[in-house]
Design brief:
Low-confidence stretches: 21-30, 298-310
Helix content: 25-40%
Distance between the termini: 38 Å
Mean pLDDT: 84
Strand content: 15-25%
Number of strands: 14
Largest sheet: 9 strands, mixed
Length: about 325
Amino acid sequence: MKRCKSAAILCCILLVISLTGCIAPNIKLFSDAKDPLAERVLMGKSEPKVLVVPIQGVISDTPERDFLRDRPSMLQEVVSHLGKARRDGKVAALVLVINSPGGSAGASDILYNEIISFKKKTGAKVVAVMMDMATSGGLYVSLAADYILAHPNTVTGSVGVVLLRPDVSGLFAKLGVQVIAQTSGRNKDMGSPFRTASEEEFAIFQGVADSIAGRFLGLVEKHRKPDAASMELISTARIFPAAQALEHRLIDGIGYMDRALETARTLAGLPDDAKVIAYRRSDFPDDNIYNTTTMQARPGRPLVDLGLPAYWSRLAPGYYYLWLPGME
């Protein structure tokens, strides 16, 4: 009983300290975005170097806030990796380890452009290796690579865009609640969750979706050059297993991480024992190429669990290069 009381008191003290910000600057319970990235050698001894960059989870430019610490957005974290590699000058190749269902159309496009820019400025070669999935925005980002490798069980594809917007008009009608909007133009409040969209608004939304999807399809044609029959199938936004993705030229090969590293070394003209490095914000014992985190693991569960899927809090209304069933 005494132990339970002591634990409860300690938790209360930590909670008060974290909420008031009265924590000493040199006390850190977890690594966070304020910790600098530092190079860790995973294997090899010779230079130049191959940098392994994880692209894990939903692609977003929104930072996350965990209990007692901050986590940078995926976009911020990957761009930080690219910036550090560009300043190094010895990084001759990147291996992008992608395991993502996609994310926001804007963040996916920015990340693709950052990788293209990195290649132009440094001359480095880029290999994308797809893990469980690299769908929609995950595939979009991989288009910047010189070579795309998928694992035998990878799921990819979903080349298209989805508009997510809530509609609570039915619920409000049942509750007898009405929201009235006075606007300066008939489409000013289009997409309002408090009413059903008009036919004109549906058409406008569809036109924007088609335009954003058109950029994605254009990049697939530019980088992957599928034939007309494959392009027609890809444009349906369906998913593909690795073997079919190879058949339709969405990827260049099927294999594992050792092949991805070998391909990166070959493209960059590096020796077999070239250093393979990663950037971390924490030290990890027995670190290796399959570690996709840069910081210490986050606390397991939130203080209050509402029983909702974690991704609902991260998806604001908008257009996404995203395969929804692939979200955790």
